[in-house]
Amino acid sequence: MREAILTFLEKNSRIDLQELAVILGTDEATVANEIAKMEQEHIICGYHTLIDWDKTSADKVTALIEVRVTPQRGQGFDSIAERIYNYPEVRSVYLISGAYDLMVILEGKTLKEVSGFVSDKLSTLDSVLSTATHFILKKYKDHGTIFERKTRDERMPVTL
């Protein structure tokens, strides 16, 4: 039942618990108790709203930064990852496979602000060997949500 609850909450964290209970064939109290347990166990770590910032007047730039680091003896990548994720600009930090070790997602108001963070704070950390910054120019799909669906022309083509 846990996986089913998590699947539904991941798609819509505002789903009505009574509706979820009906879908799962159980009662609302059981669902609520299971969610509370998963929150206590930190299986459910938070609830978030997905926003299309391009449709607002807010200035927001998102960058994906690949980071190569020297792992710390006895701590691996955890120590440097913790130093990075403690910056308030940093939204996410992932240990990844491939040519780089960490993927850092960060937000700022301008390209210059984000570039400044990378050059002044991130690149100057002792363990950081190199970085590669990629700015998000447009979001098509995020967390399973398609941002702009193209409307299909339902008219039939006519040739004369």
List strands and helices in order, with pairings.
Elements: H1 2-11, H2 17-24, H3 28-40, E1 61-69, H4 78-85, E2 90-95, E3 102-108, H5 111-122, E4 128-135, E5 141-142, E6 145-146
Helix pairs in contact: 2-3
Which strand order spans the largest sheet, edge to edge or round the barrel?
2-3-1-4
Question: Which architecture of the largest domain does the CATH hierarchy give at level 2?
Answer: 2-Layer Sandwich
Distance between the termini: 60 Å
Number of strands: 6
What structural class should be given to the helix and strand makeup? alpha+beta
CATH superfamily of the largest domain: Lrp/AsnC effector binding domain/regulation of amino acid metabolism (RAM) domain
3D architecture notes:
- With 160 residues, the protein is an alpha+beta fold.
- It folds into two domains: 39 residues; 86 residues, Alpha-Beta Plaits.
- The protein is 32% helix and 21% strand.
- The chain has five helices and six strands, in the order αααβαββαβββ.
- The strands form two sheets. The protein has a four-stranded antiparallel beta sheet with strand order 2-3-1-4. The protein has a two-stranded antiparallel sheet with strand order 5-6.
- α2 packs across α3.
- It is flat and about 55 Å long.
- The mean pLDDT is 91.
Please sum up the structure shown.
With about 160 residues, the chain is of the alpha+beta class.
